[in-house]
Structures are given as C-alpha cells and as structure tokens.
Specification:
Blueprint: E1 2-7, E2 18-23, E3 26-31, E4 41-45, E5 54-57, E6 64-68, E7 71-75, E8 88-91, E9 103-109, E10 115-119, H1 138-148, H2 150-160, E11 165-170, H3 177-186, E12 193-200, H4 202-215, E13 224-229, E14 243-249, H5 259-269, E15 270-281, H6 285-297, E16 300-304, H7 306-309, H8 312-315, H9 333-341, E17 343-346, E18 349-352, H10 358-363, H11 366-374, E19 377-384, H12 386-395
Parallel strand pairs: 1-5, 11-12, 11-14, 12-13, 14-15
Antiparallel strand pairs: 1-4, 2-3, 2-6, 3-9, 4-8, 6-7, 9-10, 15-19, 16-19, 17-18
Length: 399
C-alpha cells in the first residue's frame, strides 16, 4: 500500500483551507480536517491493499507540490495512477481514522487572461441528480467562451444598458462555468445592480456551485453571484424580479419528458424583454427538435445567435448555420449537404460527418473529438412572443 504524508503548514486553517497537490498530471485537493492542528501529519493512501508498502515524506526532495496559501511542501505520489483508487486519508499517530473524499479540480482558460478554476466534486458522497453536473461539457465551454468574446460582451452590454438593474438565471449550471463567465462579462456593463443566480439539483449541486463561486470571486468583482436548487417545473422562492437573461447549455440531452417542465420554469422567470441564451449539442435531433416546437407553443421563439457565431473565432468551430427545424431533417437538402461536406479527423484521417461511427469517435484524439463536438454545437437566442406567452402563462397558472 502506498501513501503520501503531508504535514499541515502553519498558515492552514482546519476545516476551511485545503491542501492541493499534483498526482500524475491531475490536481487533487483535500480539506484540512476540522479537528486537526498545525503540524499534524496527514497520510494519504494512493494504492490498493495489494500494493507494496511505500511511504513518501512530504518534506522530501520530490517533484510534485503541495500548496496551501503561501506555504509549499514537496510530495511525490507513488503507486496507483487512477483517481478512483485513492483510498482516503488518515492522521498519523491519531487515535481515530477518517476518510475524506479527495477532490479533483480543473482550470478553464477563456481568453483575455481569464482562467476559471473549477472544483469537480464535494466532500459529500451522497450524490443527487445523474452526475452530469460534475464535468465541463463541450457546449458549456463554447457558451462560456462566447460570453468572453467582443461580440458576446457587446450583445450583453447592449441589452443590459436598457435596464436599471440586471438579473441573470442559469439553469442546469453544473460546475458553474457559464454562469461565472457571464458574471465576468456582466461586470463590464455600466449598470448599478447586477446579479447572477446559478441553479442545479439538490444541496450537493448547490454546495459545488458555491465552492466554485468562492474560488472565482475575483473575476466578477461588482456582480452578486448566488447558487440555488431549482428542479425544472418549479420556481425560485423569494425571487420577485424577472430575469433579463436565462442561460443554459446541453439541457436537451436526456428526454423530451423534461422539455415542458424546463419551458415552464423559463417562461415563469423570463422578463418580458429578456433573452434566453441556449447552447445545444445535437445528438438526437428528432427528439431534441421537440423542445423548440414546444417552445413555440409557449410563446418562446429561438433563432441562431449570429452576432457571435458569425465572428471569425466561431465560424471555423461551430460551422453549422442550419435552423433548428433543419438540423437532422433527412429530407432537407441543406442538412444533407452539411453532413456530407463537413470533415472531421480520426487519427489524422479525414472523414465526412455523415460517415462517422461510434468506433470512429472512440478512436479520435482529444483534440479531434473536441472539434467533432464543436461542429455539432449551436447557440440560440430565445425571446418572447408576448401574445402567445401570455396565454400560456394563464394556462399553466404562471405569474
């Protein structure tokens, strides 16, 4: 069994601060136990029961860094390289042992020297939801980057400047990447009161969002950012004001049974002059188009966000300019042309989109797969057809 031993440094606050270290290229994090004291030695198991005993002192001259505040110690992780094999943590010479969930982190660079640091799990092992909130999805990355580009900031600023205050709601926030990126864009708007509310399912989802809000508070210095639990079909408690922006990415992936509850929540919270910004990665177009059909019946009309998609940054990445009613329609000549002329790479070999198989997707490099995903991502802007929306609000008893 292999271990890393780490001594709690002088400036670490038990129960508040965390120790971070690099383990085989991944940044891992552990919370300093609340009943520990400065100088205690923590022992982290990084191998299974069948591994040879091997203990590495964190003060040895090794390559990886354990960092809390300004204090740095050295550590090396020998043994298993899989995050799932990390066996926990215990305090050496203590009369009791403890198991603490080790957190994985990721950093996303969004340009303009902005880096967003995201914690991907919480200390609570009781998960709520389907686990899709614990990763950065390609459409979420594209949407977050769209808020940071000049055309995205200009669009947001233009619509924000017509209001004395601006409220933004993100649905299915996951790690909070898009909401944090939008808050950064909103911080550049000349509006006195600015607020972003990021939402997901349950206490665990809110805890994860709050952790990432705290980690990135420097990127939205004059914007209030909060997290809340919001199942679709329900409404936020205590929110009297409508939202001028509603954000979402990859919300249509699961089943069309969720579309009506999602639209009910959107319609209830959207300001009459508000905008919905929705990133879609098409997977099952026949199913996913139902959302847009239902949206029309709710009085919400969607069109491509051309102000951003037609910029040089996104033209070569998100290449599809078909409408939602065209994508996936095998009778549509424009769709047939798109999938036949759009090439992707599989191990540096070209293949058009129409010919790509599941086996091809598995064989793609990470970069090839990212480009494959992006060519099937679109960003839509939704706005209200007020006459239809008013009728739908009445039917659903939406205020």
């Amino acid at each position: 069994m292999a271990y890393i031993t780490i001594q709690i440094p002088p400036n670490a606050e038990p129960g508040v601060d965390s120790l971070t270290f690099q383990y085989r290229g991944q940044e891992l994090e552990i919370l300093v136990p609340s009943d520990a004291t400065v100088g205690d030695v923590l022992q982290i198991q990084v191998g299974g029961d069948d591994d040879v005993d091997n203990e590495v002192d964190a003060t040895g001259n090794n390559d990886d860094v354990v960092d809390v505040g300004n204090s740095k110690q050295k550590a090396e992780a020998n043994g298993s390289s899989l995050l799932t094999e990390l066996g926990g943590i215990e305090e050496v010479d203590s009369q009791h042992e403890r198991n603490i969930h080790i957190q994985e982190n990721t950093t996303v660079s969004l340009g303009n020297s902005i880096a967003i640091h995201l914690q991907q799990s919480t200390h609570n092992t009781q998960k709520q939801g389907d686990g899709t909130n614990a990763m950065v999805w390609p459409s979420g990355l594209v949407l977050a980057q769209s808020f940071m580009c000049p055309s995205g900031i200009e669009y947001i600023t233009k619509h924000a400047s017509t209001q004395p205050s601006i409220n933004c709601l993100e649905l299915g926030s996951g790690l909070g990447l898009c909401g944090i990126s939008f808050a950064n864009a909103l911080s550049k708007c000349n509006v006195d009161k600015k607020k972003v509310v990021m939402t997901d399912l349950g206490d665990d989802g809110v805890e994860l969002l709050n952790a990432n809000i705290y980690k990135n508070s420097e990127v939205f210095h004059n914007v209030i950012v909060e997290a809340a639990s919001l199942p679709w079909g329900k409404t936020l408690e205590g929110m009297e004001n409508k939202f001028h922006f509603i954000l979402g990415s990859d919300l249509l992936y699961n089943t069309n049974e969720s579309y009506e509850p999602l639209l009910v929540t959107m319609l209830h919270h959207l300001h009459p002059e508000g905008r919905i910004i929705l990133a879609v990665r098409w997977r099952k177009p026949d199913l996913e188009k139902d959302f847009f059909v239902k949206a029309q019946s709710f009085g919400i009309e969607f069109e491509l966000w051309t102000e951003v998609l037609d910029t040089s940054e996104f033209q070569s990445r998100c290449t599809c300019r078909l409408g939602w009613n065209e994508y996936g329609n095998v009778e549509c000549d424009a769709f047939k042309k798109f999938i036949s002329v759009t090439d992707v790479l599989i191990r540096n070999e070209k293949k058009n989109l129409a010919e790509v198989t599941e086996s091809d997707m598995k064989n793609m490099t990470d970069d090839e797969h990212s480009k494959f995903e992006e060519c099937q991502i679109q960003i839509y802007i939704g706005s209200l057809n007020k006459k239809v929306a008013t009728k739908k609000r009445s039917i659903h008893d939406i205020s």
